[in-house]
Amino acid sequence: MRGHLFLLIGPSGSGKTTLIQEVRKVLPAVRFIPTTTTRKPRPGEEHGREYFFASDEEFDALIEREDLLEWQWVHGNRYGTSRQRFEEAIASGVLGITSIDVLGGIAVKAAFPDDSTSIFVRPSSPQELRRRLVARGDTPGEDLERRMERVEMEFAQQGRCDAIVTNDDGHLEAALERLIEIMRPYLP
Ligand code: ADP
Ligand code: 5GP
What we know:
The protein is an alpha/beta fold. Helix content is 41%, strand content 24%. It has a single domain (4-186), classed as Rossmann fold. The chain is built from seven helices and nine strands, in the order βαβββαββαβαβααβα. β5 and β6 (77-82) form a beta hairpin. α5 (126-136) runs antiparallel to α6. The chain is globular, with a radius of gyration of 16 Å. The structure holds adenosine-5'-diphosphate and guanosine-5'-monophosphate.
């Protein structure tokens, strides 16, 4: 059986990571596929689990070798997806899930049109996003403002995704149900 990639797209703080954790509790066969970033690990994050953490030089080398299917500057750091990691997952029947920004998600979907589903995770309002990011431990300041600036651009692209999951404050369960419904046709 061919695998499938579920691309969770949306602004930082929309709930992609939370939904990935929750969906994997219900569907343990779904595997998280980490991407690569030059951002420094947050407390508790491990190399190869949340991300493959790379130095600027290592990331330059990945670009030079054309290992990355796409890469983007997001909030002052670079993030990219390994073409090989996705190809291997699909070929070996893995149901993979990953979190990606909107431009990257659209690029990955274009590369694997039949083997991926792009899913926009939408919070109810930008104010809610700001509150969630602060609650998560992001310090108010330049970095948080940079994240908020991207929100408008990301919202404008949501119509280009295959599906939309609304993740309203306090309604994680409903968002999870909707996500599973979208994934169901690809489950064994
Ligand atoms: P992302 O991966 O999209 O950046 P996270 O999953 O890290 O977002 O979520 C950001 C914060 O919002 C986390 O603290 C998370 O616990 C919280 N959160 C996610 N979904 C909901 C929800 N439906 N209601 C309330 N808080 C939520
Ligand atoms: P964070 O730093 O909060 O973990 O992630 C910042 C943003 O980068 C999130 O929107 C996340 O989905 C996105 N992202 C993670 N990996 C990739 C990737 O490989 N490519 C692109 N384009 N975006 C990514």
